């Protein structure tokens, strides 16, 4: 879970840096926006993109090596979005009104319940036991 948490946090930070980089590029394309290139924050945002994307790939691969895809993908989806919303609220001063907060909480609970329901029927069965096929169960067609 540590690998997945790192991947989620870096992913949310990469998306937030991408949002800032998009705003910078929009300003750059304005008639008087050439000065954006000389601002150090522009290059910090570019560096965050260059470093953040490979870090996400490395840590998601480490998480996938330890856990099944059916468990990793929903957890990554849920927590990347949670970290992204929290980071967006803090960084861009986007506030959640009461209706937005209730919608956010209901969506979060729905996704968490869905993740639990998708992964609960599997039990503690190993991968080998799930795909166990015995030779005596297979019928062979004599014409083949």
UniProtKB/TrEMBL annotation:
Its membrane topology: Multi-pass membrane protein
Keywords, sorted A to Z: Membrane, Transmembrane, Transmembrane helix
Keyword match Lyase: no
Transmembrane feature ranges: 41-65, 77-95, 101-120
Protein's UniProt keywords contain Flavoprotein: no
Matching InterPro entries: EmrE-like, Mg_trans_NIPA
Subcellular location field: Membrane
Pfam families, per database record: Mg_trans_NIPA (PF05653)
Main subcellular location: membrane
Protein name: Magnesium transporter
Protein's organism: Clavelina lepadiformis
């Amino acid at each position: 879970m540590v690998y997945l948490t790192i991947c989620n946090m870096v992913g949310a930070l990469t998306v937030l840096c991408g949002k800032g980089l998009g705003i910078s590029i929009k300003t750059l394309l304005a008639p008087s926006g050439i000065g954006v290139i000389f601002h150090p924050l522009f290059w910090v945002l570019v560096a965050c993109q260059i470093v953040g994307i490979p870090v996400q790939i490395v840590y998601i691969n480490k998480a996938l090596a330890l856990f099944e895809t059916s468990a990793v993908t929903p957890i990554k989806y849920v927590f990347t979005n949670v970290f992204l919303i929290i980071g967006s609220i803090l960084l861009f001063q986007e506030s959640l009104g009461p209706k937005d907060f209730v919608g956010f909480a209901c969506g979060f609970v729905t996704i968490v319940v869905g993740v639990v329901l998708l992964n609960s029927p599997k039990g503690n069965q190993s991968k080998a036991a799930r795909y166990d096929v015995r030779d005596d169960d297979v019928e062979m067609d004599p014409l083949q």
